[in-house]
Design goal:
By secondary structure, the protein is an alpha+beta fold. It is 28% helix and 30% strand. It has one domain (7-79): Translation Initiation Factor IF3 (2-Layer Sandwich). β1, α1 (16-29) and β2 form a beta-alpha-beta unit. α1 packs across α2 (44-52).
Length: 82
């Protein structure tokens, strides 16, 4: 992954276990200061992701419950360190 481009992962209508695996894999390849935006329909996936990431490796920038309707959410996290 090159540069500091934001990463957008859209998991609407996707199984949570697959989403969590993909998010952790992408996060591990991110550079410090890169931002990952997660879009989905299962708000529990954000909590699951934050449970598996070490606390000092990320910062939650936005924890929105809905951005495109009542069944969707958007979360943005910044990677703080490798």
């Amino acid at each position: 992954m090159a540069g500091n481009d934001d990463i957008i992962l859209d998991f609407r209508n996707t199984f949570s276990s697959i989403s969590l695996l993909k998010m952790t894999e992408v996060f591990s390849r991110m550079q410090p200061t890169q931002i990952m935006e997660i879009r989905g329909s299962d708000p529990d996936i954000k909590d699951d992701l934050l449970k598996v990431l070490p606390e000092d490796t990320y910062e939650v920038l936005m924890d929105g419950k809905s951005y495109a309707g009542p069944d969707f959410f958007r979360v943005r996290i910044r990677k703080c360190r490798a």
